[in-house]
Task: inverse folding
């Protein structure tokens, strides 16, 4: 994007960046909600899902958004008003910051920093603050329990996620996300360079850990204890309605889309497909579409688990993080490091 | 109280004492949480007041009565045939089964007996209402634990059973079909063959649940050793049905009592489980659905011909006397204690419904468990609000 925008004035560049950023967050989120939450879930549960709004219910999403916008924005009487109103936007901030580091083509990125993946994983934690704000300010016991559970869970699963990425970083030898993609595009596996070197093959354990950690970061089943609707009503979302609930909803699914895109970038080769030169200008056009396709593939797994599994108990999921995933990812790092030195 | 209970209680007291020492040091205050009356997990209006220390339950007390409809009193101003309309609504998922014990009690007082064909059809409908009821439990348990999908399968396949009940009785949920001295009508044409197909579907559903839910490791880790009820504790609280059978008590009124249904003439098995935990309760119910399918299949094969109604007077006056009849209903033992003074209406009816007793164990059972387990234990005890409050 920097090449495309090089000759424009600052305000023009900023406007275009804002619009592209909005599209990049909302479009994948909408795709996920319609494709997986509405349709795939329905088919798995032997029902049709939305069918009335548009062909096969494709406009249902707009109807839902319209419904949420019309609803009254209720603030509980005992709530901490400012913090209560601010919380959904704090959650969205991390989503919008996270999209910055994901490249969609050889010249398509928002910011190109040398510590890109470090930045991404750092800003993804901001949502914890928003959730804690929401739970505390709601002045509801269910919200408080949900927020505390969410905080514990997100902090616990941040670690295996980062440690899983460390394996990729060691193998690529860089923290720059664009260079990680390039390393996958130009790399070779045991001398065979036909398909590049997508790290899902060499870092398969890391990929699995990353997927599980993403599932937990998104508080989706089987890790949805914070919003467990059968016990905590909806956890920290309980008191929210109208547009603020919509913000949380967008945040949840946009984050799902972006984490899937991050997984696709780190492990599946990002915008690159074998058969073309990695520097080919064509990738600036088809790159976003390829990335969207890979993102949908990863998201498919996330949602598949979501609709299939019952949820872990809070102590069980903490055990999974601390006793299984973190040791496993540490072992993964050691092995990766040793192999990196050997080869 | 037995040794097991004693050691459990002692361990609990010791744990509490240790907690209390820690609490004194860091001074945390408990929190009272009202689960209900309106809460997603209680599917109705049950209110459970739990005292929490963090996520651990210190004490739990169920408060019932939000749905009391006064059926025992209402029966006193209804004639005997009219009562079935009322009692249908007690356990609304397996409603035909509610009519049976009352009708049997009235028959016992009047000293009439339904013709064989009526008894066989009655048993078939009785078991079908059990399937309609318990199939929903098998799906709902998943929902309570966060897996949304099984309940849709349950609703899908329950519909076929309800269709068959509707084909006979004309009512999906409230058949109101049982009469003193027999049944209102005979089976419709082609029903027997159709029902065989439906039973095949229910068996498929059971297999599906077995792989989707029972075989799931997360489900097992959430239910195994959770909410363990020792047999003696369960019996002392008056638990019945699958709840007590999953504690290893081999007690089933269908087999052990001669309740005027034809279960004795069928070849079937009472399933028990030694563990007494949430998983056992789920597993026993799953097997019972299969066993009900076996029973209905045998009934379809062996159903005798003949009338479906005995000779009873048009206006039913029940002679003075008392009768208590209980049957093994989907939720547990349900009994009616009917006192007649020789009028058109009962003088007094006492209804013993299973869920009331099944829920009464919760203060003992929920002590010391975590909040998520409260939900899974309540779901596995399987109560229906109408059955608690009547």
Result:
């Amino acid at each position: 994007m920097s090449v495309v925008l090089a000759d424009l004035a600052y305000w023009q560049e900023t406007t275009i960046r804002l619009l592209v950023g909005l599209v990049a967050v909302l479009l994948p989120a909408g795709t996920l909600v319609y494709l997986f939450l509405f349709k795939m879930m329905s088919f798995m549960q032997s029902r049709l899902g939305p069918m009335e709004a548009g062909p096969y219910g494709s406009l249902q999403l707009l109807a839902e958004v319209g419904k949420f916008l019309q609803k009254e924005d209720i603030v509980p009487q005992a709530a901490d008003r400012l913090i209560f109103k601010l919380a959904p936007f704090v959650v969205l901030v991390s989503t919008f910051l996270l999209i910055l580091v994901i490249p969609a083509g050889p010249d398509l990125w928002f910011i190109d920093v040398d510590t890109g993946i470090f930045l991404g994983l750092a800003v993804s934690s901001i949502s914890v603050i928003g959730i804690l704000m929401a739970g505390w300010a709601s002045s509801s016991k269910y919200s408080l329990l949900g927020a505390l559970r969410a905080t514990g869970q997100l902090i616990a699963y941040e670690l295996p996620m980062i440690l899983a990425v460390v394996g990729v970083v060691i193998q690529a030898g860089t923290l720059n996300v664009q260079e990680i993609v390039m390393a996958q595009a130009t790399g070779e596996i045991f001398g065979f360079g036909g398909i590049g070197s997508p790290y899902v093959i060499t870092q398969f354990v890391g990929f699995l850990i990353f997927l599980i950690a993403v599932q937990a970061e998104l508080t989706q089943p089987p890790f949805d204890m914070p919003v467990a609707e059968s016990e905590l009503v909806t956890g920290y979302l309980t008191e929210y309605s109208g547009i603020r609930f919509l913000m949380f909803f967008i945040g949840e699914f946009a984050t799902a889309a972006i984490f899937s895109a991050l997984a696709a970038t780190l492990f599946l080769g990002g915008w690159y497909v074998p058969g073309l030169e990695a520097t080919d200008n064509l990738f600036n056009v088809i790159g976003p579409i390829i990335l969207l396709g890979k993102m949908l593939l990863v998201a498919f797994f996330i949602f598949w688990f979501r609709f299939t599994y019952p949820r872990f108990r809070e102590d069980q999921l903490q055990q999974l993080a601390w006793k299984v995933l973190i040791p496993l990812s540490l072992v993964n790092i050691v092995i990766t490091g040793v192999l990196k030195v050997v080869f | 109280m037995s040794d097991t209970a004693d050691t459990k209680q002692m361990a609990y007291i010791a744990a509490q004492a240790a907690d209390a020492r820690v609490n004194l040091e860091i001074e945390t205050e408990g929190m009272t949480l009202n689960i209900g009356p309106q809460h997603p997990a209680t599917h109705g209006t049950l209110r459970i007041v739990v005292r929490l220390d963090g996520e651990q339950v210190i004490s739990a007390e169920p408060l019932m009565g939000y749905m009391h409809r006064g059926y025992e009193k209402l029966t006193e101003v209804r004639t005997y045939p009219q009562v079935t309309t009322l009692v249908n609504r007690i356990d609304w998922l397996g409603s035909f089964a509610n009519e049976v014990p009352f009708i049997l009690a009235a028959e016992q007082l009047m000293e009439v007996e339904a013709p064989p064909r009526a008894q066989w059809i009655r048993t078939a409908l009785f078991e079908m209402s059990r399937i309609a009821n318990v199939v929903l439990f098998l799906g709902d348990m998943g929902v309570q634990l966060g897996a949304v999908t099984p309940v849709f399968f349950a609703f899908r396949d329950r519909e076929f059973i309800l269709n068959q009940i509707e084909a006979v009785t004309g009512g999906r949920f409230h058949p109101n079909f049982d009469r003193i001295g027999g049944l209102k009508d005979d089976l419709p044409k082609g029903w027997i063959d159709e029902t065989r197909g439906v039973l095949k579907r229910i068996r498929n559903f059971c297999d599906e649940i077995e792989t989707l839910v029972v075989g799931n490791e997360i489900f097992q880790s959430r239910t195994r050793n959770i909410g363990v009820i020792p047999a003696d504790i369960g019996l002392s609280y008056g638990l019945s049905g699958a709840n007590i059978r999953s504690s290893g008590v081999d007690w089933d009124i269908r087999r052990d009592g001669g309740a005027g249904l034809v279960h004795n003439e069928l070849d079937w098995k009472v399933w028990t489980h030694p563990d007494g935990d949430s998983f056992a309760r789920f597993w026993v119910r799953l097997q019972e659905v299969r066993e009900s399918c076996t029973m209905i299949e045998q009934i379809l094969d062996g159903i005798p011909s003949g009338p479906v109604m005995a000779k009873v007077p048009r206006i039913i006056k029940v002679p003075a006397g008392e009768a208590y009849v209980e049957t093994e209903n989907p939720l547990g033992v349900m009994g009616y204690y009917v006192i007649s003074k020789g009028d058109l209406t009962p003088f007094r009816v006492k209804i013993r419904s299973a869920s009331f007793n099944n829920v009464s164990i919760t203060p003992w059972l929920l002590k010391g468990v975590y909040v998520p387990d409260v939900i899974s234990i309540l779901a596995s005890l399987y109560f229906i609000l109408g059955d608690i409050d009547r």
Remarks:
- The first helix of chain A runs from residue 10 to 44.
- The mean pLDDT of chain A is 84.
